[in-house]
Sequence to fold (301 residues):
Amino acid sequence: MTELEKLQTRFGITGLARVEEGMGGLARLSVSTPAADATIYLHGAHVAHYKPAGQRGLLFMSAASQYRTGRPIRGGIPICFPWFAAKVGNPEAPMHGFVRLGDWSVESIQRSADGAAIVLGNKSNSATKMSFNADFELRYHILIGEKLDLTLEVRNTGEREFTFEEALHTYLAVADARKITIEGLENTEYVSKTENLQRKTQSERLITIDREVDRVYQNTQTPCVLEDPGFGRTITVEKEGSHTTVVWNPWIDKARNMPDFGDEEWTGMVCIETANTAENAVKLEAGQTHRLRAMIKSVPH
Ligand code: BG6
Fold:
């Protein structure tokens, strides 16, 4: 039996979830419930597709994405951990940490009240300790139902406290990024990565995308509401255990410079990332667990 067949025999549930070969030969879970369909790669515990019944998919996926070990998948929801962006003091270390670059294990798949409940796991080893000297276990709870409900649990399994950053780097699919608005961050301070890391305050009620936007909003726990007139829907991203929200659209030049992203694809996406970074990094004592939760839903107009 192949590894895939073993996983399918152990975790597959007829009519609800199957383990199959996905792009690049990578293992993925294909989930189909009355409320929504979803696809989750074990590579990076990457939710690549989520589609509520009767609606279009909520997540953007790049047609140029690579699907191979050691590379991140472009689109969907990469998990950034244990650091966000470049590692401070070690620019050689992979962007956004290492857990989006390799396989997670399947811990369980179950039928839930309105869909499916999946738990994937990951933990520290001698290789992870080379760039992040800590003992940890990660558990990623994915609920597929009328909402996409995600909880990343980080447990300190060692004897020393450690500090980490994290993000559920959510790429939302939009009809035209230039015509959307995002509400929920008014009066919030942010670091603008496109303006020499200047610290600014969001004065407008609504964020619009009219240039490259790469903003790390700090000390915010509020939900974000994305209005997309083109697709005729409102997407809400609610969160718990998160004090940072990142809003990102690469616009024209950066899109051209990313090898795994189509030149024109920036019009079809915006990232609203549920995170804890920089001053909101999480300090975790021995034996303690931290939970980061994002709940994403779409309401058609
Ligand atoms: C965002 C960062 O979260 O991720 C951006 O704020 C970055 O600066 C983007 O360009 C994509 O990162 P990556 O490593 O997936 O290309």
